[in-house]
Design a protein that fits this description.
The complex is a heterodimer of chains A (441) and B (84).
Chain A lengths: L6 H6 L7 H14 L12 H15 L19 E2 L17 E4 L9 H14 L3 E4 L6 E4 L3 H14 L15 E2 L13 H11 L1 H5 L9 E4 L8 H4 L2 E7 L4 E2 L1 H8 L22 H4 L9 E3 L4 E3 L9 H5 L4 E2 L4 E7 L13 E7 L8 H17 L6 H8 L1 H8 L32 H7 L3
Parallel strand pairs in A: 5-6, 6-7
Antiparallel strand pairs in A: 1-2, 2-4, 3-4, 7-12, 8-11, 9-10, 12-13
Chain B lengths: L6 H15 L8 H7 L5 H13 L3 E5 L4 E5 L13
Antiparallel strand pairs in B: 1-2
Helix pairs in contact in B: 2-3
The chains are: A alpha+beta (441), B alpha+beta (84).
Amino acid sequence: MAKHDTPLLDQLESGPWPSFVSDLKRQAEIRAKNEEGVEFQIPADSCDDLLGILELSFKHGRTHWKHGGIVGVFGYGGGVIGRYSDQPEMFPGVEAFHTMRVNQPAGKYYNTEYLRSIMKLWDFRGSGVTNMHGSTGDIILLGTTTPQLEEIFYELTHNLNQDLGGSGSNLRTPSDCLGSSRCEYSCYDTQALCHFLTNEYQDELHRPAFPYKFKFKFDGCPNCCVASIARADMSFIGTWKDQIRIDQDAVNKYVEKDPAYPANAGAHKGRDWGPFDIEKEVTDLCPTQCMKWDGKKLHIDDSNCTRCMHCINVMPRALKIGKETGCSILVGAKAPILDGAQMGSLLAPFVPVNPDNDYEEVTEIIESIWDWWMEEGKNRERLGELIMRQGFQKLLEVTGIDPMPQQVEHPRTNPYIFWKEEEVPGGFERDIKEYRKYHQR
Amino acid sequence: MSVLDNREEATKMVTDYLQKKLKNKTKFYLNDFYKVFPDDKPRQVKKFVNSLVTDGVLEYWSSGSTTMYGLKGAGKQHASEGEE
């Protein structure tokens, strides 16, 4: 029997999709029955009260959560997001209902033993409600009280070999795709770089360092499974410098509709899309029109390829990424808080990803950007907004990267070029007498 | 020599600065501390300010997305919202 009537929430269960309301009701029931005999350290009816307070918010059309507060455990300035209810008498189970962010392993590889231990801890000291995973990538543990925070932190760090993630004005938990552990498209080892930078920048991750949040995300190839280009202040997207490797025999197998060579590796097999047509499905869809099929051979003009991955995705057995691989660094993506959503802008088209020198080429760029943003960024200003305010040219100056054509999105749309005196031969001073020799007043 | 090298004096500069503003506000952005130490690099100031939290002089406040700093115990705590 539910503790609170929730007619408005119940309606959310009627749609075709899985419902968080059903999940919460199930968890409330599990806690009420407590068949496993857990000694709950926070109120057993926290999930019931969570549903109750949400129903009340729907009824009132306003939130009953207060804004902010407690931040973390001793020594940390992030990883815990304080949440307090403003209706503690009606809903005592959620008077304090803090969120904890737990740093997910690179590539989100778990074993069941680990997941069970996390859940055992969370059922015992929290609400048992999780979010796998939050948009930053962390394991989100939703709902616990203040006295439990240090206890959970101790257990996580001492017995589960597990750290908290980032929140507030910190470096947020870096997140990556599976990378070369399972994916043939991966142009660099995303997990190695993600893990290295997580360790390298522990101070920035755990103690507020910036004007606002800062996110790293790592994609092994331009398919961008982590969507770093849209979500990270700094995204590292795998790419290659040389040519797409073509196996012409395999291309012909696709064209001949050999069943061992299904288009898109059989990903769209659920429906009959008609016979494979290389021109319609591959060459005509190339965004830069850099491909040609002459009936026997596939030609690619690699100098005009933008690494969109479409042809490789459609014919993975015939086309492979190049051999000289590294990553592109894009900066400034963010969600729409100020100025609307922004995609990342290409800063460095190709950076070697080299673990042998501790990714020196990558960390150099990161630190020069941080120095600039920490000095010039306004409170709550994301990197993308600072770039808009001070200009991409300024970003190039601080990172010491020379301007290059790949950074230009639309050529010839902006007639203004700002030259500095030192960039102009002879400077801005002119000899007026010399000038008058050739030009009358 | 940076003023941050003299921990005692630097701590006093921070607490004096925050005490002076206490009437108007109790929570400060990291940027505000750059004004106290204009000659030091932001990264050094950040390290120092965070160490003051560890020492219990300052405390964090976070909305979840943004972190602010205040003198320990100063200003509104979660239990009250402008009533005192």
